[in-house]
Amino acid sequence: MASKQKNLTPQQQNYQQLQKKYEIKRPILKNCVKAFFIGGLICVIGQAISYFYIYFFNFTEQTAGNPTVATMVFLAMLLTGFGVYDRLAQFGGAGSAVPVTGFGNAVISAAIEHRTEGFVLGVGGNMFKLAGSVILFGVFAAFVVALIKTLLGMWGVL
Hints:
This protein is mainly alpha-helical. 80% of the residues lie in helices and 0% in strands.
């Protein structure tokens, strides 16, 4: 850092000092606590939905996962459409982006943002810009893991 300061002109050094003086200090600990509780709240809701499927529809713990994930993504999309999830994300930060609900929010946010361009080119063309890479790398990672598991199973390791 000191070597970078030496390469700056006096005007640039003064500007950096002025910038540091007026820079907004971010409450890192407070943001981490809020993210922890919002992410935890989302996970508690997901667990409640999972228990709902187990209790009312006779799913097992293993089979209740898929409908639970689908329900959580649907709820995130619905809440994003009504503007509720955006306020939750603004408060909770990464706590709302990390769970699978963040994926639903990302998909529907892009669709809402580009709806004025029409359904095909606007919504359809932009809906999967962010989510497309998540889907692509998720499928690729699943393929690699399945390939490794198959090879290890053939060699008698698993």
